[in-house]
Amino acid sequence: MRPLKNYGIACMSMGFLIEEAAPVVWRGLMVMSAVEKLLRQVDWGQLDYLVIDMPPGTGDVQLSISQNIPIAGAVIISTPQDVALLDARKGTEMFRKVHVPVLGLVQNMSVFRCPKCEHETHIFGADGVRDLAKTLGLDVLGDIPLHVNIRETCDSGQPVVISQPQSDAAKAYLKIAVEIVRRLPAPPA
Questions:
Q1: 116-163: per-residue pLDDT in tens?
Q2: CA angle 125, 131, 134 (to 5 degrees)
Q3: How many CA atoms lie within 13 A of 174 on its CB side?
Q4: Which of 41, 71, 118, 143 is an S-S bond match for 110, by CB 3.0 to 4.6 Å?
């Protein structure tokens, strides 16, 4: 299979392989079979990094991937609200238990700034991810704001880091990327 490419990034998803409205209701062996296909039957070519976006939690996907392929590090992304932080904590502890280094946490939807008056509101709470990181002895790699431009630019196929590279939102993503790369082990020579 050939991945889709945009802006120099190769991408493959289960969503590309099924009908648009079809749910993926797989567990166990079906999940691992699909993951194996995405990892081993996609012509990735030469990669600098392979990023795997997983759902929250500690289910079949996370456990299967962490036990079957070498992982240089995990990044836990969470909103600062209590219920999301429970999953973030469990995810962190699962990766630690299977000896996958946790590179840090990202606080998503950290703040909403009104586009009319610039007032900032912490819709999901202010510092939940920071508090969790402190408890777990991890760093916060950055904060992603809740901003309409992020949604609009992604929906239009022009991610904010491409379409508005000088914006605060783009700078937030780029800062996180730099922090992740800085924490990864050096590639083998």
A1: 898 889 999 889 999 999 999 999 999 999 988 899 999 999 999 999
A2: 160
A3: 12
A4: 143
**Residue 173 · residue 108 · CB < 8 Å:** no
Judging by DSSP bridges, how do beta strands 9-11 and 120-121 pair with one another? unpaired
Beta carbons within 10 angstroms of residue 186's beta carbon: 5
The first and second tokens of residue 180, run together, are 């992740």
pLDDT digits (tens, 9 = 90+) for 30-79: 777 888 888 889 999 988 899 998 888 777 778 888 887 889 999 999 99
Say if residue 153 is exposed, middle or buried (CB neighbours under 10 Å; 0-12, 13-18, 19+).
buried
Q: What is the reported pTM?
A: 0.89
Sign of the Cα pseudo-torsion (25, 28, 30, 33, in order):
positive
DSSP state of 185: P
